[in-house]
Specification:
Layout lengths: L24 E3 L2 E3 L3 H4 L13 H25 L4 H21 L1 H19 L16
Antiparallel strand pairs: 1-2
Helix pairs in contact: 2-3, 2-4, 3-4
């Protein structure tokens, strides 16, 4: 049996922690839409660990980055894949759950910070030296 045939997390909250995940589709022997970090072993909840508010803010920035990058991909290429749809839905759900715990304003601040970081990362580096600069490299 292929590892993708083993779904550890499903849309019916198999572990009882209120974690809903996007469904996968099984067609014959093929699994469509399986995302390891959502459906696989890596996506399992860890109830033994309780994150701090700071850690939840870090997670909010991570999930915000996922949402922004997926939406930018969709805008740039006009394509939508089943994995991206599931990641997008899951990331939005995680952001909503984090907002319930640390507040909507804190999550919006992390979203804005993620957006700023993505813009900064995708902008060409600035060169402060212009052709008229008096700096001759000494």
């Amino acid at each position: 049996m292929d590892e993708k045939d083993i779904i550890f997390n499903g849309p019916t909250d198999p572990h009882g922690y209120g974690q809903q995940v996007p469904p996968v589709t099984q067609v014959g022997g093929i699994t469509i839409g399986f995302v390891e970090e959502i459906h696989g072993e890596k996506g399992r909840p860890v109830p033994e660990y309780m994150p701090t508010k700071h850690e939840l803010a870090v997670l909010a920035r991570h999930w915000a980055t996922q949402v922004i990058e997926i939406e930018e991909w969709w805008d740039a290429y006009g394509q939508v894949g089943s994995d991206e749809i599931r990641r997008h839905w899951y990331a939005l759900d995680r952001l909503n759950k984090i907002a319930d715990l640390i507040g909507k304003d804190a999550v919006i601040a992390e979203y804005d910070a993620a957006k700023t970081e993505i813009i900064k990362r995708s902008s060409p580096p600035s060169d402060d030296r212009s052709p008229t600069s008096k700096d001759d490299g000494d």
